[in-house]
User: Which sequence fits this backbone?
């Protein structure tokens, strides 16, 4: 039992909590810097074989789901909670004693003055309203306390920190994140969900000098199972919140409209973004891949396109085609349109963002209580000559309180 108490005391200590907080913060930085969920080859190519092996051995490729990260977060939360629980009784006693007249008048005052004719104006100037009038040992006493919530500032702040840590940890463990890209008019599924997003419009706002100022996507998200739809706009630094997802405007690029005709009669059309592959149905096994939109060997803007047949690269004589070019594959012809801007969206869903927000509110509230809601007590005792001795006690910011106290006492209504 004694050993268990020592263990609990150590876990509840501030030193242990600070050490854990630093370690968790370092782990979060590592998880942000090291690409997560990649294959061994990527780490080997990016770092070195030994470093890549170290990353996989210690689960640095999946930090937020690793057993040791979950253990650290659990220990940190347990430590802060135990620390707070052990302080509850002391805080309750402290809060009650601040309003207990018998206890308050035995304390050493932060500021005091004797010979005051009327103490009530002093109470008003110091914003101590409705003081209690009573008698102690046959002497008249005025007593008032305020801001007792200030005792709980650090306690509330610690609870807020715990919620932030839990919200961030659970959020990273359950985070849903994927990418959707396309041109205006296209509807793309949000993978592994019943939702799909339609890109109603995409605009690039430019200044008079041609400088890009903003990317704006007009979007509609639909639940394919229920038919429920929501619409909104997403721009850089202003994500749209639709269907429970946050859609971030991440990037933009070029696409082309590929039109296929037979004997001059168009029968199929599709938008192809850079990095996409289009399967040509009329020739099974044939596909074309849009590598980039960039200058060709003569410096003219052109599409770089590669052809594949059954997964093997086909040499068709050239790989750069100007916008508007017609690729002859008699009796078929493939026409490439002028460049079309496409939008790239990052779709995220964090089920515990609300917990982080609640933790942030409580942390801010706790800091406000701790720094600005100062527990203070003011009491006045009538002396035998009929004048009063006024005493003030401030738990924090004593010099500031003394200055306020002196200015309140020097008022002409309170002077002898």
Assistant:
């Amino acid at each position: 039992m004694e050993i268990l108490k020592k263990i609990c005391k150590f876990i509840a200590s501030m030193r242990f909590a600070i050490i854990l907080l630093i370690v968790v913060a370092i782990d979060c930085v590592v998880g942000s810097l090291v690409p997560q969920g990649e294959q061994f080859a990527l780490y080997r190519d990016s770092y070195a074989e030994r470093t890549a092996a170290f990353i996989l051995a210690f689960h640095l490729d999946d930090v937020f789901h690793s057993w040791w990260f979950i253990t650290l977060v659990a220990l940190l939360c347990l430590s802060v909670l135990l620390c707070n629980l052990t302080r509850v009784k002391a805080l309750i006693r402290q809060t009650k004693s601040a309003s207990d007249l018998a206890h308050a008048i035995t304390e050493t005052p932060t500021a005091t003055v004797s010979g005051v004719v009327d103490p009530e104006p002093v109470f008003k100037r110091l914003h101590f309203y409705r003081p209690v009038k009573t008698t102690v040992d046959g002497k008249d006493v005025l007593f008032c306390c305020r801001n007792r919530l200030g005792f709980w500032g650090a306690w509330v702040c610690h609870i807020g920190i715990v919620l932030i840590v839990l919200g961030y940890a659970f959020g990273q463990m359950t985070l849903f994140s994927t990418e959707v890209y396309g041109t205006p008019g296209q509807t793309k599924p949000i993978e592994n969900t019943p939702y799909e997003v339609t890109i109603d419009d995409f605009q690039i706002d430019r200044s008079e000098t041609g400088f890009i100022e903003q990317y704006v996507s007009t979007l509609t998200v639909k639940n394919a199972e229920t038919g429920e739809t929501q619409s909104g706009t997403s721009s850089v630094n202003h994500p749209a919140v639709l269907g429970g997802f946050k859609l971030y405007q991440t990037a933009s690029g070029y696409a082309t409209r590929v039109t296929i005709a037979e004997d001059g009669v168009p029968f199929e059309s599709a938008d192809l973004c850079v990095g996409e592959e289009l399967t040509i149905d009329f020739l099974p096994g044939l596909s074309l891949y849009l590598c980039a939109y960039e200058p060709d060997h003569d410096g003219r803007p052109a599409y770089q396109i590669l052809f594949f047949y059954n997964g093997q690269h086909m040499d068709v004589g050239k790989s750069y085609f100007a916008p508007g070019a017609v690729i002859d594959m008699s009796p078929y012809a493939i026409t490439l349109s002028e460049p079309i801007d496409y939008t790239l969206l990052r779709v995220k869903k964090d089920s515990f963002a609300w917990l982080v927000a609640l933790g942030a509110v409580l942390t801010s509230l706790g800091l406000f209580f701790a720094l600005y809601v100062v527990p203070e007590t003011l009491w006045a005792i009538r002396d035998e000559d009929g004048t009063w001795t006024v005493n003030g006690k401030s738990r924090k910011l004593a010099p500031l309180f003394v200055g306020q106290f002196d200015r309140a006492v020097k008022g002409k209504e309170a002077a002898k």
User: Anything to note?
Assistant: The chain has a mean pLDDT of 87.
